[in-house]
Please model this.
Amino acid sequence: MDIVKGNMGWIEVIVGPMFSGKSEELIRRLRRAEIGRQRVQIFKPVIDQRYAKNGIVSHSGLEIASELVHGGTEILEKVAPRTEVIGVDEAQFLGESIVDVCSRLAELGKRVIVTGLDTDFMGRPFEPMPRLLAVAEEITKLLAICMRCGNPAVHTQRLVASEELIVVGAGGMYEARCRRCFEPQLAQQKLEEKAKLTQPSGAAKVRSAAS
Ligand code: ADP
Ligand code: ZN
Model:
């Protein structure tokens, strides 16, 4: 972000698929703010307890302490008046309120740095990230490396059977895929295969005959 005059706040958003380095980049920016002796507060949603309970941990093992929140509005309650820089990881799990909360904090003169997935396991825009991108001063879109072919990866491929929007996990459940290798229907197909296996064979026949 360019040097700004006075105590104007702003919003920086870092998006991309899983494994693209969003947490690493967030930690890098927050560490630099701390080196600059700025007062920093860091938040992440309770839903993501992948590795550490009270810290943001990147897939490469970088770590920074953070406070857990259940939703966007809880951040407003927890931000101290003197805090200058606010980091938020995994904002796609914080609900619609996060957009107004970030705007409010920026209006109060704070630098807000937010990360999140911009698309879900089917490649669809993952609300509220698109709305956050619309109000941000600065956007960084990161790409991972496709686990199939090594090309730049824009997608988060879900490898397990589930249609739920939120299935938290990393090891073996998701991988980065490029546009060409991405299979948006894979999780759905696996779910159908599983259903067929658990159904008595007669019921499966009836169902396929009816469809
Ligand atoms: P994000 O927050 O976007 O999920 P992280 O910052 O936690 O990403 O992790 C990024 C790190 O993950 C990379 O620096 C690299 O060490 C590791 N990594 C594992 N798989 C991949 C991949 N497919 N593409 C890129 N980096 C990967
Ligand atoms: Zn690929």
